[in-house]
């Protein structure tokens, strides 16, 4: 039976390991920040749902080839792992891939990345209820700070560069909130699974479950994934796979092995900063004064989380 990592266990975690965990979560968020701009560049070439499917499929194939060549134990996982991570995690991956693509298409890169990061508050509360992790006033304050920051970013942003105006802001908001829920639940699942199975096996199980579920659901919904139509589309998908599927998830899963779910989620909120800056530079999206204030609040929350980890003494739940 999987057991939550409690505050008592965390007391033995060296300070250097906690700082490394926070920096890994920060690296994950920064890498995820490239998802929106890369996806936006692909919208003229293929449907949003196909983008999500193909990037997960390519990630699964890369991990499978690596396992066959160097690490055969990647395929030897117990039944609990297949059910919890392969089926449960795969369903969350499938939900995220579809929801986030619609969020970008309806609300733009900045809006989608911003709505995704209502997740830290969800993570902080659920980590207390499910994993029995400490919910200190500082953690809650940092989570609320970054959530308020992303809300201002949405209010002060634009949806220029979206796939098509016909999707509308309503579809973008629905996609953004669903992606936040799936991201939060994936974070909690990783806190259970990564210490037991390791970061790479968890990513592989999630990916293979996600691609199977995506293929079935999209086909039944009449949106069967279409193959990339050109070399440019393949290049974009390879870049998405290398960054947001493989590198970012390995960074994040390595982070939650070292620190609790709540601070990891706060650190990863650097994503909307990276995504928005890239959107401003590449797609002429814009932010009002409120939008810039929101991004400043996100950066302040992330920096505050790092300072907390730097002087961390494990709080009692």
Label the overall shape: globular
Please give the oligomerization state of what you see.
Answer: single chain
- Biggest sheet details: none
Number of strands: 0
Strand-residue fraction? Answer: under 5%
Determine the N-to-C terminus distance.
22 Å
What is the overall number of helices?
A: 13
Structural class, from secondary structure content? mainly alpha
Which regions have little confidence, pLDDT < 50, spanning 5+ residues? Answer: 1-12, 159-166, 313-317
Radius of gyration: 19 Å
Helix % is over 70%
Name the helix and strand elements from N-terminus to C-terminus, one letter apiece: HHHHHHHHHHHHH
Q: Please, what is the average pLDDT?
A: 80
Number of domains: 1
Structural commentary:
This protein has 317 residues and is mostly helical. The chain is built from 13 helices and no strands. It has helices at 7-10, 15-32, 35-42, 48-70, 79-116, 119-130, 137-155, 168-197, 199-220, 231-256, 261-267, 271-283, 289-310. Helix 4 packs antiparallel against helix 9 (199-220) and helix 6 (119-130) runs antiparallel to helix 11 (261-267). The two termini are 22 Å apart. Mean pLDDT is 80; it is low at 1-12, 159-166 and 313-317.
